[in-house]
Design a protein that fits this description.
The chain is an alpha/beta fold and about 625 residues long. It has 22 helices and 9 strands. Strand 5 (about 490), helix 19 (about 500-510) and strand 6 form a beta-alpha-beta unit. The radius of gyration is 31 Å and the shape is elongated.
Length: about 625
């Protein structure tokens, strides 16, 4: 009989992450991720937008402000983390949620790649060899490998360290802006150069190049997702997450626009997009009238550290998002399987680290290639977030909102925020711009999306869950539940029972990564010495153990084989359990059709009364 689809699944409640993050913690973590993008976004924006780069970054900043307001409201509705994955799940269904989440996974992977790659250009202030593309790619691969091993061993980030790094970054950025405003800023000259489609001007981009530059500027603001992902770890997330997002948004806009104005006052667009394409902040400090040498070294060191933290945040964010999607049966659950010793999602960490390395090598060290991929996934996810807010305003206007996006169009029963409409249209337009004008972003982005959709559909069919369903996970508290782990399994073998009992033992051992020891006990009568040869029975025992070994190899397992002389089977088993570290005993017996144990089962009854470890019984009819 086929059971119909259940919309709600029951699962054991294993507890949730501790809600320990306040507004200041969320701001520090979020700005640390967002603020790091200035170290590479400024150069690639100027590469296309030239002198109009401040306009591009301002337009991108307005879109970011709209997106931040959308995330702030949606985060005030939902207590759980997950960002746009959770938003779209509540507004639409699991398929749309998967598309948003899969796009974000691409973002996180590119975050790892682009942040790790950008470390080299800043450290080249100290090591000139890092100016060579091959050395930069080699260093990037090493950095990603280090990040994997650090996270694999379960190293915990320190909130205090995050605060220190964020504070140092913010103070340094503001210091550069203040010094630049005093000694370098030339407002009339900047406004004169902020012209678009002026023929013959080295500072003026065409309209097509300007819009490409604006799309590149969007890279600077995609870190907002990481703040929303932390909702499940925030205290009073309905209030703290929106506040942290608004604070980060305000400061980030000031820093980005201020830094851009100073950059184009100190350097020409040509210098910014060629010589300092990969380390634009170093170019700014070198142009300062004083302190350029020591401040350049400081920026190089701090930039490298902050970008390392941002790359690490990308790897952690990908693992956190994979966990959320796996929990909702959107990706195979083995991807976030925890390591038995370190309790870290080692499979997902390895997959995302390898993909990041692959993308870096594929890019050949081109930041524009990485930025195109970044925008493909981010703009898709942001568009869906804006659309989710509009849909939830229409479908569920009664939901309690601690924060509400301003500037609303009011209807009879609901209202729609203008910011969500503007943000949705702008992010969708940027996504189309990448699709139509960036071949690398288009082909790789759609390949990533198609592979993901194929995996999603096949996995859902295997689990007999509709692809467009919207399942709910009901957490059931079972206080006495504890996960069982076996390391050493003892299996007494006698003739006629090898096949069934060993298949059971091998399946359990493979699941728990345990060792199996199979023993055959030769019962020696009290009338003869215990170490008597017993040649005929020994030959039979060796034959049984050879069959045991063959069955083990069928499961790709090497079973430890032992022949033991003892006065009784019970005594041999109890002695082994007492003296050696076995944590599971599997016994074979036989039963009559009436369910009564035969003579062979007498040993089982005796052992059940005396053993301390768990016992599994394989009963053969």
């Amino acid at each position: 009989m086929k059971v119909g689809f259940k919309k709600k699944f029951a699962e054991i409640d294993k507890g949730s992450m501790k809600r320990v993050l306040g507004v200041s913690d969320l701001f520090a973590i979020g700005y640390g991720d967002l603020g790091s993008s200035i170290y590479y976004a400024l150069g690639i924006t100027a590469l296309f937008a030239l002198g109009a780069a401040p306009i591009s970054l301002t337009l991108a900043g307005l879109v970011f402000a709209c997106t931040a307001l959308t995330y702030a409201e949606l985060s005030s509705i939902l207590k759980i983390g997950g960002g746009s994955v959770s938003f779209t799940k509540h507004a639409f269904n699991d398929l749309i949620s998967f598309i948003a989440g899969w796009g974000l996974l691409l973002d996180f992977i590119v975050t790892i790649a682009i942040s790790s790659y950008s470390i080299g250009p800043y450290l080249s202030f100290f090591f000139s060899a890092l100016k060579d593309p091959d050395y930069k790619i080699g260093l990037t691969v090493c950095i990603i490998a280090i990040l994997f091993f650090v996270n694999f061993r379960g190293a915990k980030g320190s909130g205090r360290l995050c605060w220190i790094l964020t504070s140092l970054t913010l103070v340094t950025q503001l210091l550069i802006i203040v010094i630049g405003c005093i000694y370098l800023l030339d407002i009339p000259d900047l406004f004169d150069h902020m012209r678009i489609n002026v023929k013959g001007s080295l500072w003026s981009p065409t309209w097509a190049e300007f819009w490409k530059g604006t799309a590149m500027a969007m890279v600077a603001y995609t870190g907002i997702e990481s703040m929303s992902q932390l909702s499940s770890e925030a205290k009073h997330p309905q209030r703290t997450v929106p506040k942290a997002i608004i604070y980060a948004m305000t400061l980030l806009l000031i820093v980005f626009i201020g830094t851009t104005l100073i950059a184009l006052s100190a350097l020409t667009p040509s210098e910014l997009s060629t010589t300092y394409l990969e380390n634009p902040i170093v170019g700014i400090v070198k142009a300062l009238p004083f302190g350029g040498q020591w401040l350049g070294g400081w920026v190089g060191l701090l930039g490298g550290v902050i970008l390392f933290v941002a790359a690490n945040a990308g790897l952690m964010g990908a693992s956190r998002l994979a966990f959320r999607m796996g929990e909702n049966y959107q990706i195979p659950r083995f991807i976030y399987q925890l390591h038995s010793k370190h309790k870290t999602p080692f499979i997902s960490l390895a997959i995302f680290a390898l993909l990041a390395i692959f993308i870096v090598i594929l890019s050949g060290g081109k930041l524009t290639f990485l930025a195109d991929l970044y925008n493909f996934g981010a703009m898709l996810a942001f568009f869906m977030a804006h659309l989710s807010l509009i849909i939830l305003r229409i479908k569920k206007p009664e939901l309690k909102r601690e924060f509400r996006a301003p500037l609303n169009i009011h209807f009879e029963k609901f209202s729609i925020p203008i910011t969500a409409i503007i943000g949705g249209l702008a992010t969708l337009a940027t996504w189309f711009l990448v699709v139509f004008t960036k071949p690398d972003g288009r082909y790789l982005g759609f390949s990533w999306l198609l592979v993901g959709l194929l995996m999603y559909v096949l996995y859902r069919r295997k689990k007999e869950i509709p692809t467009t369903g919207n399942i709910e996970i009901e957490k059931i508290k079972i206080p006495e539940f504890k996960t069982i782990h076996y390391k050493n399994i003892l299996v007494p073998i006698r003739e006629g029972f090898e096949s069934g009992i060993l298949q059971m033992a091998c399946e359990i051992a493979k699941h728990h990564h345990a060792k199996v020891t199979a023993i055959h006990v030769l019962e020696v009568p009290f009338s003869i010495p215990l170490d008597s040869p017993l040649p005929h029975r020994t030959i039979i025992a060796e034959t049984i153990l050879k069959r045991t070994e063959a069955i083990g190899r069928e499961f790709n397992m090497q079973i430890m084989l032992r022949i033991i002389h003892s006065r009784s089977v019970e005594n041999a088993i109890l002695t082994l359990l007492k003296n050696e570290d076995f944590d599971l005993l599997i016994l074979g017996t036989s039963i009559k059709k009436e369910g009564i144990l035969t003579k062979q089962g007498i040993t089982v009854e005796k052992l059940l009364k005396e053993v301390d470890c768990p016992v599994l019984i394989y009963a053969r009819p």
